[in-house]
Write a structure and sequence with these properties.
The protein is of the alpha+beta class. The protein has one domain. It has three helices and four strands, in the order αααββββ. Strand 1 and strand 2 form a beta hairpin.
Length: about 120
């Protein structure tokens, strides 16, 4: 009986392991590192004067994964530009309230943005 219990516990542990680091988004595990257009945009946004107020968010819009750069600069007026997985602009009048499951996936180390 103990042997069967041991085998059952070992089997449960073996099958419960998951080697995946996280959910796949746009066909990649880490869009910040693995999507070239995002990586390039982050490098541009990391320049002096922008970086401490910039961030990148991921959301869902009409069932699709989308991304947008935002700013927490209290003196800036920024436009919401939503892009799809390929980096193409999603057309239409989209507001932040249209974007579901928003989460910040990148902000610089010197960020002053508070997301709590």
């Amino acid at each position: 009986m103990k042997k069967y219990l041991f085998l059952l516990v070992c089997s449960a542990l073996l099958f419960s392991c998951n080697d995946e680091e996280g959910p796949v988004v746009c066909g990649v595990e880490n869009p910040v590192e693995d999507l070239a257009w995002i990586k390039s945009a982050i490098q541009e946004m990391s320049g002096p004067g922008f970086s401490e107020y910039s961030y990148l968010s991921q959301a869902r819009y009409q069932g699709e994964t989308v991304f947008f750069f935002g700013s927490c600069d209290p003196l800036a007026n920024w436009a919401l530009i939503v892009k799809d997985c390929e980096g193409n602009r999603v057309e239409g009048e989209i507001s932040l309230s249209d974007l579901n499951d928003q989460k910040v996936i990148w902000k610089p180390s010197n960020s002053v943005c508070n997301f709590s």
